[in-house]
Amino acid sequence: MPSTDSKDQKTSILAENYKGIISLLGEDVSREGLLDTPERVAKAMQFLTSGYTEDPQEVLRKALFKEDYKQMVIVKDIDFYSLCEHHMLPFWGKAHVAYIPNGYITGLSKIPRIVDIFSRRLQVQERLTTQIKDCLQETLNPLGVMVVIEAQHMCMQMRGVQKQNSTTTTSDFTGAFNQAKTREEFINLIK
Ligand SMILES: Nc1nc2c(ncn2[C@@H]2O[C@H](COP(=O)(O)OP(=O)(O)OP(=O)(O)O)[C@@H](O)[C@H]2O)c(=O)[nH]1
Ligand SMILES: [Zn+2]
């Protein structure tokens, strides 16, 4: 099938490139332990960037339910793994997402699903935060959305500044969350 062919082709081109990279890094790519490594890395990296081929709005739209609930809905402690666009090293942590419905709710599992889609791209934490917020706002048209992300960046731990214990927190919001009291309610509930 053409789609399989092109996926296999992409994997083999990526693997060929990784072979060159591993060799340039000083390794013997013909030693036994490394024989399949270029292909494994090719597949792993395609998984870690699989968010480019998925449409997060479509995921939300598939599970929109008319409902009159007007209070805050919070899905907290959503684990995510992403890659920083500067070093292509992992950053990971937890996303907390809240929205206040305006006639429609979405399937709860769809919120972690859109976090995964935006995470599996080359990212900066700030943009990841804003993209999740925008996606919910544009698709659900709720009274407000707020997203808080707490993360650790491998590029600040394994290399560079080498700070093992620092975490970065980002947040973004719309609508009702412009009110400090609404933000406080959310922050208190995710503590
Ligand atoms: N704002 C932001 N910066 C990030 C994120 N991930 C990595 N960075 C930063 O991207 C910056 C890139 O800075 P450069 O000076 O070009 O790169 P560098 O020489 O490798 O910098 P150091 O990491 O300080 O060694 C670094 O300060 C990283 O900490 C992120 O999600 N958001
Ligand atoms: Zn980085």
From TrEMBL:
<dbReference type="InterPro" id="IPR043134">
    <property type="entry name" value="GTP-CH-I_N"/>
</dbReference>
<comment type="pathway">
    <text>Cofactor biosynthesis; 7,8-dihydroneopterin triphosphate biosynthesis; 7,8-dihydroneopterin triphosphate from GTP: step 1/1.</text>
</comment>
<dbReference type="GO" id="GO:0006729">
    <property type="term" value="P:tetrahydrobiopterin biosynthetic process"/>
</dbReference>
<comment type="subunit">
    <text>Homopolymer.</text>
</comment>
<dbReference type="GO" id="GO:0005737">
    <property type="term" value="C:cytoplasm"/>
</dbReference>
<feature type="domain" description="GTP cyclohydrolase I">
    <location>
        <begin position="16"/>
        <end position="190"/>
    </location>
</feature>
<keyword id="KW-0378">Hydrolase</keyword>
<dbReference type="GO" id="GO:0006730">
    <property type="term" value="P:one-carbon metabolic process"/>
</dbReference>
<protein>
    <recommendedName>
        <fullName>GTP cyclohydrolase 1</fullName>
        <ecNumber>3.5.4.16</ecNumber>
    </recommendedName>
</protein>
<dbReference type="Pfam" id="PF01227">
    <property type="entry name" value="GTP_cyclohydroI"/>
</dbReference>
<dbReference type="InterPro" id="IPR020602">
    <property type="entry name" value="GTP_CycHdrlase_I_dom"/>
</dbReference>
<dbReference type="InterPro" id="IPR018234">
    <property type="entry name" value="GTP_CycHdrlase_I_CS"/>
</dbReference>
<dbReference type="GO" id="GO:0008270">
    <property type="term" value="F:zinc ion binding"/>
</dbReference>
<keyword id="KW-0342">GTP-binding</keyword>
<dbReference type="GO" id="GO:0046654">
    <property type="term" value="P:tetrahydrofolate biosynthetic process"/>
</dbReference>
<comment type="similarity">
    <text>Belongs to the GTP cyclohydrolase I family.</text>
</comment>
<dbReference type="GO" id="GO:0005525">
    <property type="term" value="F:GTP binding"/>
</dbReference>
<dbReference type="InterPro" id="IPR001474">
    <property type="entry name" value="GTP_CycHdrlase_I"/>
</dbReference>
<feature type="binding site">
    <location>
        <position position="84"/>
    </location>
    <ligand>
        <name>Zn(2+)</name>
    </ligand>
</feature>
<keyword id="KW-0862">Zinc</keyword>
<feature type="binding site">
    <location>
        <position position="155"/>
    </location>
    <ligand>
        <name>Zn(2+)</name>
    </ligand>
</feature>
<feature type="binding site">
    <location>
        <position position="87"/>
    </location>
    <ligand>
        <name>Zn(2+)</name>
    </ligand>
</feature>
<keyword id="KW-0554">One-carbon metabolism</keyword>
<keyword id="KW-0547">Nucleotide-binding</keyword>
<keyword id="KW-0479">Metal-binding</keyword>
<dbReference type="GO" id="GO:0003934">
    <property type="term" value="F:GTP cyclohydrolase I activity"/>
</dbReference>
<dbReference type="InterPro" id="IPR043133">
    <property type="entry name" value="GTP-CH-I_C/QueF"/>
</dbReference>
